Amino acid sequence: MDKVIEIANRAVADYGFRQAVLYGADEIARRWELTQDERSVLEGPVLERLGALPIPVQPEHIPGEQAQIADLIRSAARP
Predict the structure, then answer these.
(1) How many CB atoms lie within 10 A of CB 1?
(2) What is the mean pLDDT of each run of 10 residues along the chain (79 residues)?
(3) Which of 21, 23, 38, 65 measures 20 to 30 Å from 30, CA to CA?
(4) Which bin fits 58, alpha (ψ -120 to 50), beta or left (φ > 0)?
């Protein structure tokens, strides 16, 4: 799930990339060569969380948001 965390971290910090992920998750998954499990996490809980973020995320809040999404991804990846 490291690739999904990397994608999410970048999407939190970069609003333009977040838009690319939100509206082109299939393309992002293909370009980053995500597995089906990684794709499911990206297209499910990650997109939901990214869609709820403020525009833009204030710089002082970026590390906290990234940590929360990383925890969400790790939790979603557990069987």
Answers:
(1) 19
(2) 97 97 96 96 96 95 97 88
(3) 65
(4) beta
Query: Which pLDDT score is estimated for 79?
Result: 66
Peptide bond into 56 cis (omega under 30): yes
Q: Give the span between the Cα atoms of 11 and 53, in whole angstroms.
A: 10
Give the CA-trace dihedral at 19, 23, 25, 28, to 10 degrees. Answer: -50
Structure tokens, 56: 């833009």
Burial class of residue 10 (count of CB atoms within 10 Å of its CB; 0-12, 13-18, 19+): middle
